[in-house]
Amino acid sequence: MTLELLQRIPAVSAVLRSARSRCGESVNRTPGPYRVRSSSVAASTKAETNTEPNAEPAGLGPRLGALVLDWVLCLLIASLYASPFEKSWPAVLVLILANTFFLGLFGQTPGMRLLRVRCDSYPDGGVIGPARGLFRALLLSLFIPAIILNSEGRGLHDRLAGSIVVTVPRP
């Protein structure tokens, strides 16, 4: 029971997988625990996805709300050293840096944490890492990829970065 709980923690899961591979055990990689909303997509990806009832792609409302909260925080931070009315690029730079840091290391920005969503690696789950976090943040700063959604609710920036935004279950 305890081992199953520990395997749900992304960092512990990665350590266990690497330990198994070093010991010669085969590592059984199951795809991520994401539920697909569309029945046509569910039929085509049934063999590819491991459905877990608590991991559902986040809707547009929480995603947009988290982005607005993060943007307000970035405007406040950027206004400490540059006026957002005179120069707009410092706030965008702070947004890129904040998304890279928080998503790359923790899987959630402060806005995502408040609205109970997180960004996971797709399809295997876990934190996306700083490099993919930076790539995702750069695409997000263009804004256009963020509004091009597919049937799973993943934006173009999520698909290109190999990530998915899912709801965090209530404790």
From TrEMBL:
<feature type="domain" description="RDD">
    <location>
        <begin position="58"/>
        <end position="162"/>
    </location>
</feature>
<dbReference type="Pfam" id="PF06271">
    <property type="entry name" value="RDD"/>
</dbReference>
<keyword id="KW-0812">Transmembrane</keyword>
<dbReference type="InterPro" id="IPR010432">
    <property type="entry name" value="RDD"/>
</dbReference>
<feature type="compositionally biased region" description="Polar residues">
    <location>
        <begin position="37"/>
        <end position="53"/>
    </location>
</feature>
<dbReference type="GO" id="GO:0016020">
    <property type="term" value="C:membrane"/>
</dbReference>
<feature type="transmembrane region" description="Helical">
    <location>
        <begin position="64"/>
        <end position="82"/>
    </location>
</feature>
<keyword id="KW-0472">Membrane</keyword>
<feature type="transmembrane region" description="Helical">
    <location>
        <begin position="89"/>
        <end position="107"/>
    </location>
</feature>
<protein>
    <submittedName>
        <fullName>Uncharacterized membrane protein YckC, RDD family</fullName>
    </submittedName>
</protein>
<keyword id="KW-1133">Transmembrane helix</keyword>
<feature type="transmembrane region" description="Helical">
    <location>
        <begin position="127"/>
        <end position="149"/>
    </location>
</feature>
<feature type="region of interest" description="Disordered">
    <location>
        <begin position="24"/>
        <end position="57"/>
    </location>
</feature>
